[in-house]
Amino acid sequence: DGEVHINELKNGNTEMFWNPTSEVRRQRLKRHIVLFEEQTDFESERLWQHVTSAINKGDQHKATQEKFVLEEEQRNAARERRESGTEWKPLLFQHDAGTNEWHYKYEDLRPWDPLNDIAQFEKDGILQTMERHLSTRMSNHKATCINNQITRHKRSAKDCRRRKTSDQPSNHSQNTESSCSTPESVQELSDDDGKYRGITGLCAQCGKEMNHLKEIHSAVLSLQKAQQDIHR
């Protein structure tokens, strides 16, 4: 937020390197933070408020004291959980016993793909990436599920016909109903209304990913609106 200068030691010249003018400040992205009164007790801004206040006032001694109070409370809480046998289950991190390190559960370490990746956003502490080809993968997955169901449907019909052929009833029992009825033909599939007629339903993963896709689409619309506001 302050001016940055480059000082040339050989000749003593000073050059402006960075100047956050009012024009620069107006172009900044708007920060979206959780209001202090809406934060829980263990969120950083609320948890470290007294330490932060002391640092801003330049009181290093007070900041050290407040930091010690926080750490001591954490030690006592850990001791109580250990004595009561209560297991601490973090929401966003998991422990790697091999390296004895904590890792973010939803980390995505792959390189950013500008041809496929649109934007990265956070929801409830979970970082997610909006991808151009997500809908294509969804369509392929749904098609696979439907094809599997159709295959099972046809196999069932084929098995029924085979049993009818191998177990021909006698003349006096030809009017008796067969134990295996002929399956109805699979209706033509159409995705115009978002449903696949003739299929009992998509798998649980399809439904979950469809809901996930709707959430991402909503988030992207919000990002696009923010970008339009920025450009305007």
Automatic annotation (TrEMBL):
Compositionally biased residues, Polar residues: 167-188
GO MF annotations in UniProt: lipid binding
Pfam families: Oxysterol_BP
Xref: InterPro entries: OSBP_sf, Oxysterol-bd
Composition bias type Basic residues, residue spans: 151-164
Annotated stretches, region: Disordered: 144-193
Entry-linked Gene3D superfamilies: 3.30.70.3490
Protein name: OSBL5 protein
Gene: Osbpl5
